[in-house]
Design a protein that fits this description.
By secondary structure, the chain is α/β, with parallel strands linked by helices. The strands form 2 sheets. It has a 4-stranded mixed sheet with strand order 1-2-3-4, with no helix packed on it. Strands 5-6-7-8 form a 4-stranded mixed sheet, with no helix packed on it. Strand 1 and strand 2 form a beta hairpin. The longest helix has 20 residues. The protein starts with a helix and ends in a 13-residue tail after the last strand.
C-alpha cells in the first residue's frame, strides 16, 4: 500500500504539468497545421519571464508590451532609462523612441528630449517631401 502511494505521489508533478500545459510542450511544438495558444474565455492572456509579466493581450484584443493595462491596439511601456521602441530593417535603424521622449526617423541620431530628428526628406502636406 505504501509503495503504491509513493508511486502515485511521484507521478503527480508530471500529471499536473501535462494538464496545465494542455498539449503544448515547453521545448517547442511540431505542428502539422495552424496552432492556437490563448484563452477561449473572457480573461486576458499574460506572457511571463522570470516570474514577471512582460506582455499581455487583453480580452478585447489590445496588446501591451511592458504595461499591464494597454489602452491601444499596440501599447508599449518602458522603465525609466530604457528605450521603449526601435524598428530596424536589416541592419538599419529606421524608427527610434528614446527614453527621454524624443523620436528619430530614418537614422541612428539620438533625438533631443521630446524632440524629433528626421534623416532624409520629409513631406509636410505633400509627397515626396523636399525638406
Amino acid at each position: 500500500m505504501r509503495s503504491t502511494i509513493r508511486v502515485m505521489l511521484s507521478l503527480l508533478p508530471f500529471v499536473s504539468f501535462n494538464v496545465m500545459a494542455v498539449d503544448w510542450k515547453v521545448g517547442g511544438n511540431d505542428l502539422t497545421s495552424n496552432g492556437t495558444i490563448g484563452a477561449n474565455t473572457k480573461f486576458d492572456v499574460q506572457f511571463e519571464t522570470n516570474n514577471s509579466v512582460r506582455g499581455r493581450v487583453t480580452k478585447n484584443g489590445l496588446w501591451g508590451f511592458g504595461i499591464n493595462s494597454p489602452t491601444a491596439m499596440a501599447h508599449i511601456g518602458s522603465a525609466v532609462g530604457q528605450d521603449p521602441l526601435k524598428v530596424q530593417v536589416g541592419n538599419d535603424l529606421k524608427l527610434f523612441v528614446d527614453d527621454l521622449g524624443g523620436t528619430s526617423i530614418g537614422g541612428t541620431a539620438v533625438p533631443p528630449a521630446n524632440g524629433l530628428v528626421v534623416a532624409g526628406n520629409a513631406g509636410f502636406g505633400a509627397v515626396p517631401g523636399s525638406y
